[in-house]
Amino acid sequence: MELSVLPLEQWGMPRKAPFLCAGPCSAESEEQLLETARGIERGGISLLRAGLWKPRTQPGTFEGVGVRGLEWLTRAGQAIDVPVATEVATPQHVEACLKHNIHVLWIGARTTTNPFAVQALADALLGTDIPVFVKNPISPDVELWIGAIHRLWNAGLRRIGAIHRGFSTSKKILYRNAPNWKIPIELKRRIPAIPLLCDPSHICGRGDLIFSIAQEALDLLYDGLMVEVHRSPAEALSDSGQQLTPGEFHELVRRLTIKRESADSSEYQTRIRELRHEIDTIDEHMLQLLSKRMEIAAKMGDLKRKNNISVLQPHRWEEIIESRRAMGEELGLSGEFLFQLLQIIHEEAIEQQETKVRKTGSGEERKEKTDEGQ
Ligand code: PEP
Ligand code: MN
Questions:
Q1: Which of 185, 247, 335, 337 has the most crowded Cβ, counting Cβ within 10 A?
Q2: Residue 17 belongs to what domain range?
């Protein structure tokens, strides 16, 4: 079922493109919030953010100012004439925000991960029509993200947006949270109308990387950004390494280029059509070759089975990775891309070989295995 959420144009909010939500990670004092809000006013923001209840990894660290920050937030928003937003994680947070007429809510990544918590929020939101953004869950699980959106939709909300803030990973990477763009792209494919913001602050974890991730999001037609800005990041009580100063935020906004989905000029249209045609032809050849490769893998499976040879051949696999990687890198492809591509092809080839074994075994055995995978 397609979730009929409203596109950002129909949210009844002042709309500038891109839609910029900015403000400190946490409200720390009324003065800090107001000074930061005044500092970013010129950036043309659509929404002022500040966290009041902070989900911290360790106890004993700053966990937010709580309900007393609601009035600070409201007054800071009024001072710069911009609607305000904060994070909610419990029904009590929702009630407090509704009581203080906070304009927009967001659900944090850790909360999205827990369906019980999201359902409790959806129950608290029943009968309201406040806009809510749902951050991606910490694991790269698009179904969990869609599930959270669905719970809010079931509660009658229609102004529901999504925020891509990156995913936890055990790999050593440049970023605090891996961007994993394919997950938000899949979300957008599944719910095309959903307003999508990128939060480069939580993806990057450091200020100097924010521009490239923010621009990449705009290149992918995101509706806007959520950026953490603090009057004095070094002194911030949470996420100090990733917050921008108001000056850096203005510089970020100035440098960003907004992309369009298409252009009317006939020169552009002709050239893009030609290039797309070339891509279509290459994809066709690629699929034919892959199909042929899988057929051969299936034949190898037969041969191995007859000779009682294992499907997995570690040395051969190692040799394939090394040689194809070198070959691909020579052709200008990235090592990481080649590794992932080879892994997917290898996995499917093993599947083909095993399928063949199962096909020649008893029908029962194959059926059981198929059901198990569903
Ligand atoms: C935040 O926006 O300050 C925050 C806690 O974000 P996330 O839920 O993405 O970690
Ligand atoms: Mn933060």
A1: 185
A2: 8-255
